[in-house]
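Revision sheet: structure tokens.
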Amino acid sequence: SVFLFNFWFSNIYGNLLMLGGQIALIWIGGVMIINNQITPGTLIAFILYSSTIFEIMQFFLNFNVVIEPSLISLNRIYEILNWKDTYIPEYDISSKISLSDQTAIKIRNLNFSYKNSNEQLFDNFCLDIKKSSWNAIISRSGTGKTTLINIILKLIKIPDGKIFIFGTDLNKIPIGNLIKYIGVLEQEPMIFKKTIKENIRLFIDNNIEIENIKHKINDLNLLNINSIDVKTFLRKSATDLSGGEKKRLSILRLLLRNSEILLLDEPSSYLDDDNSLKIIEVIKKSFNEKTVIIFTHSKLLMDLCDQIIYLK
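Predicted:
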């Protein structure tokens, strides 16, 4: 609210103040010219010089609008630098998850709210996700979709006994083990300044065959990627690829990981209807025996699911 006040004040009232000052300057100068107190040239010169003063005043009026987002970003950086917890993906070979439990994800009486926030995102939230089931989660902005994903991925700490993965308490699963069982498709694909091959092999067994990669590329209709070599080095932010190609590349990476639980955040975004249908067919065929949670508003994807959950 403070930021909005500063924004409105700086942009509306600040501009009105500048405009009023310029009008007053011209008005007073005009009167002085009529009274032969100054010449028109003197008035023009004075207006030109005063414009520099107005620009300086405008800078200071907009200072809060510029500085406040910068302070927010700086606070985020300090949070990361002062992070006491470490998320080095430790792996414990003796801590394997048994897949015999028929409930892939169980959430019991989860309560969560962010610090300095009066809003309770989850209040005694309970959820059962059956093994090998397809589930759609529908939510409005700000209802906890991203928070729920981060909690399941152990990016946000919660008390013991709240979430279970195949019957094992989430807090007892080393994060290195967890990322072997859970695959995530981000809404905004994370593509690195590496080769296509290196991007595809992220968190995947390096022994995977190139022919297997090319076969999956054909399944996903990644024609532009297939026409260039998988050893091609991508530019920063993968500007070589369209939004749809980035999305399909991240889906390809997920297909090759073969995780037991899949969290798909808007998998059909950046894709037209024809490509969405093809991608959905590939996902359904490849992930049919997996536990899939889709965060979506797509009717096509909802129709594929066994359960639809609404976050309010």
